[in-house]
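Narrative summary of target 7.
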Amino acid sequence: MPAQVAAVPTPKNLASALSVEASELVEIFQWLTPEESSRVMADPGTAHRVMDEVADVLAYLLQLCHVLDIDPLAALSAKVGRNEKRFPPA
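Modeled conformation, tokenized:
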């Protein structure tokens, strides 16, 4: 029996996996009304699914940041700063 080869954590593979996990999170909310989506954490079963998908998204995002040598908090701060300049408060 041949040995299984693990997927290499390349930026492409990680970005693809991140997209899949984000889609699984979206799927939970897909047909809910805005009011239902606001109460999603009240149901323990659904809350567990949401937390699992959030964890998966975060795990892949952090792995992608590690592979690309990106400080995610610095990237966020820089993006917020650019948005504040582009879209100043009215």
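The mean pLDDT is 93.
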